[in-house]
Specification:
Blueprint lengths: L28 E6 L1 H4 L5 H8 L3 E5 L5 H7 L4 E4 L17 H5 L2 E6 L2 H9 L2 H4 L3 E2 L22 H12 L9 H16 L1
Parallel strand pairs: 1-2, 1-4, 3-4, 3-5
């Protein structure tokens, strides 16, 4: 017999985090490009971020046509992604700069690290975008899913941190409320 699933968060009803969802406006649009396998993952935080951000779009695809990307990418888009050695050198968007003030869209890849690298390899237009990256030690609260890359954050944690730096007047830490509830529900379910 199939479990009852919440139509919004797509989690089993006893693990539903919808009561913790927030609705947040942002000046910067967030375009989330989600790998199809991530869409089906029970701890999918890209969808969670989209449910919370009023100015966001969620696209599920491993590859996108150049035409599709050209239609979606504004002239003032930036990619939220670490500056890794295999990526072309890109201009960095620094908080508090004129470039940051002009930023209209933040593009986020929602996938495992391995899949995100493949998706980025297949999308030269994304590789050329100015980049938003974090420096310093990062500590994820994502206790129910492990990353293959050290010092990494979940999609929703990355978006919250980026928007907090890029739009300091907003309290984007509120985006983490459903994430914290999901983690708490999952950990309490494991302890049973």
């Amino acid at each position: 017999m199939p479990r009852d699933i919440c139509p919004t968060c797509q989690r089993p009803l006893r693990m539903c985090y919808c009561s913790a969802l927030v609705h947040m406006p942002s000046r910067i649009k967030v375009l989330i490009i989600q790998h199809p396998q991530e869409q089906k993952h029970p701890f999918n935080t890209g969808r969670m971020a989209h449910l919370c951000l009023d100015n966001s779009e969620l696209v599920v695809a491993e590859t996108l046509s150049e035409e599709f990307l050209q239609q979606r990418l504004t002239p003032r888009s930036a990619l939220l992604y670490p500056s890794l050695s295999w990526l072309p050198v890109a201009e960095l968007v620094e908080p508090g700069t004129l470039q940051n003030a002009a930023l209209e869209q933040l593009v986020v890849i929602d996938a495992t690290w391995r899949k995100s690298k493949k998706m980025l390899h297949l999308q030269p237009l994304l590789q050329q975008l100015p980049r938003v990256s974090f420096s310093g030690e990062l500590e994820s609260q994502y206790q129910v899913r492990k990353s293959s890359m050290e010092n990494s954050l979940s999609t929703i944690e990355s978006i919250a941190l980026a928007l907090q730096e890029l739009e300091p007047r907003g309290d984007f830490t509120r985006l983490l409320q459903p994430f914290e509830k999901m983690v708490s529900l999952q950990l309490s379910g494991i302890k049973r």
